Amino acid sequence: MEIIKEISEMKKISNFWKSKGYKISFVPTMGFLHAAHLALVKKARELGNKVVVSIFVNPLQFGPTEDFKEYPRDLERDLKLLREEKVDAVFVPTVEEMYPPDFQTYVEVTKLTQGLCGAYRIGHFKGVATVVLKLFNIVKPDIAIFGEKDYQQLQVIKQMVKDLNLDIEIIGYPTVREKDGLAMSSRNIYISKEERNSALSLYKSLLMAQKLVKEGIKDPRILKKEMENFIHTHPFTKVQYIEFVDPETLEPVEVIQKPVICALAVYVGKARLIDNMLISP
Ligand code: PAF
What is the reported pTM? Predict the structure, then answer.
């Protein structure tokens, strides 16, 4: 497994693989890998001949009061896991390599980023789109795989690829959950033992919404209230948002008449957790 720190080196290897006709599949990550990342890597292996994983905690997508400094990191462990998955190359650039002092170009997907997490994490998706486009230009993948847990991110990347005419197939991979239903996330490390049960309230509230919709409740305002009340029966929780949106435009829906995405963000202690589910009437 190649471990590559420099952009020029990564480009050289990718160009070589492309010249040989290999299909490159790519999994961008911020490291501290868990089973959900490894599921993306396995999918990448299935779809391509060469698998590249990037590990880069991207400062551009963290707000000034967010957890860039404390974001969990464990490169040695990550590399061991990726070696076991027989990944071909891991791209691990430094912040200086990705953002030299004269860096001044950004990518902004304007509409899809207005609601949901975008409304609370100002500049977050600009940071995501910018780094992902840079990574795409460096790794030159044919296919890139993203988890559906970050549903808005997935839609933003798809839109960017479409708008900027990139020849990359974007694959969404279903959310991987712990046995009890908690969506896997590197940030779950922030959840204490006492908070763990409260963290399950996100998934449980989504199941509850699904059940209520099947029973005939079609008004998102009623559903939101029910979900919020349920979540707040759990200690340490504070709902940031609960939204029912169109799966493609991410615009809020007034009445649930076709499948919608219910997405939510909840603080459990200091951990900000997100989750979502496709809900059909
Ligand atoms: O989902 C993530 O881990 C990050 O947002 C990504 C896509 C690697 C960009 O930094």
Answer: 0.97
